[in-house]
Design brief:
The chain has 3 domains: about 90 residues, no CATH class; about 100 residues, Cytochrome c-like domain (Cytochrome Bc1 Complex, Chain D, domain 2, Orthogonal Bundle), CATH 1.10.760.10; about 100 residues, Cytochrome c-like domain (Cytochrome Bc1 Complex, Chain D, domain 2), CATH 1.10.760. The protein is mainly α. The chain has a two-stranded antiparallel sheet. A two-stranded antiparallel ribbon has the order 3-4. This is Cbb3-type cytochrome c oxidase subunit. One of its GO terms (biological process) is proton transmembrane transport. It is found in: Cell inner membrane.
């Protein structure tokens, strides 16, 4: 707040306080010529008389006390422009204190789970309950309350993990985040195979993983050559993907951005850029371990330590 606005606020507050005090004094005193309390001359039905009695002194003094309290309040707490108040109270310091108290309480709650392995936590019902609550507060906005995901957001309840599905890999994903980039290959492919090159690659990709594994139509055979020239570096010669790069397996039935021809065209032609935020600094080690245990338990409902195939 600028100095000019600060003085404006101070003047406005002081004017209001003294205005209230003056109004109370002016209206409570008796002036010459005022009728006596029993002499207002307002009489009804012969014996009903209106009186002109002032407020009781204790009531008036109570009003003065509230004005004095407001002055003391504004001296101790900030309320007069840029004047910080003698108590130096701020909402930021109050919030910081409350946050420290809450953090200490949370630290006490999470202390028993500090440093424990993910698969061990996944077999602890209380740890899973805490992990589920953390997931609901932070992760559900993208992955859904049940972890089923959506278009562009992975399903966490199956055995398909683009960055690996071991407990340590899941923890690394949560703590450090992931950035998956699918380059835009439209112009490159069209330069190699003509205007239908993207559709050729789609035809081949759709046949990957099918029985026999070998394409037998013209479009897929053209797509195979284009795939081996461009896509094999990330997705591998058999289309099994590469968890170290986050390159998905193209032979399963899971498509992060949808399996329609339009969705696949968009993915290949214009690329995709998916970002999983890093939660390590926000939630800390213990809370990320708890949420990792909950996420891991979604695909390991029996708490088995056997890791599903990472794809």
């Amino acid at each position: 707040m600028s100095a000019g606005w600060s003085w404006y606020v101070i003047a406005l507050v002081v004017l209001n306080i003294f205005g209230c005090a003056w109004l109370l004094w002016w209206t409570s005193r008796r002036r010459p010529g005022d009728p006596a309390p029993e002499q207002t001359s307002h009489v009804w039905d012969g014996d009903l008389t209106e009186y002109n009695k002032p407020l009781p002194k204790w009531w008036i003094n109570l009003f003065y006390l509230t004005i004095a309290f407001s002055i003391g309040y504004l001296i101790w707490y900030p309320g007069l422009g840029n004047f910080p108040g003698l108590g130096h109270w701020t909402s930021q310091s109050e919030q910081k204190h409350d946050a420290q108290v809450a953090a200490a309480t949370l630290e006490k709650t999470f202390a028993p789970y500090q440093g424990q392995p993910i698969d061990v936590l996944a077999r602890n019902p209380q740890a899973l309950k805490l992990g589920k609550a953390i997931f609901g507060n932070n992760c559900a906005v993208c992955h859904g309350s049940a972890g089923k995901g959506a278009i562009g957001y992975p399903n966490l309840t199956d055995t398909i993990w683009h960055w690996g599905g071991s407990p340590d890999q899941i923890l690394e994903t949560i703590q450090h985040g992931r950035e998956g980039v699918m380059p835009a290959w439209g112009k490159v492919l069209e330069g190699m195979g003509g205007p239908d090159a993207v559709d050729y690659v789609i035809a081949y990709v759709r046949q990957l993983g099918q029985q026999g594994g070998a394409p037998n139509d013209f479009a897929a055979s053209r797509g195979k050559a284009l795939y081996e020239g461009v896509c094999v570096a990330c997705h591998g010669p058999e289309g099994k993907g590469n968890p170290a790069m986050g390159a998905p397996d193209l032979t399963d039935a899971y498509w992060l951005y949808g399996d329609s021809r339009e969705a696949l065209r968009e993915t290949i032609r214009n690329g995709r850029h998916g970002v999983m935020p890093a939660w390590g600094e926000i939630l800390g080690d213990t809370r990320t371990r708890l949420v990792a245990a909950y996420v891991w338990s979604l695909s390991h409902p029996n708490g088995s330590a056997t890791t599903p195939e990472s794809r």
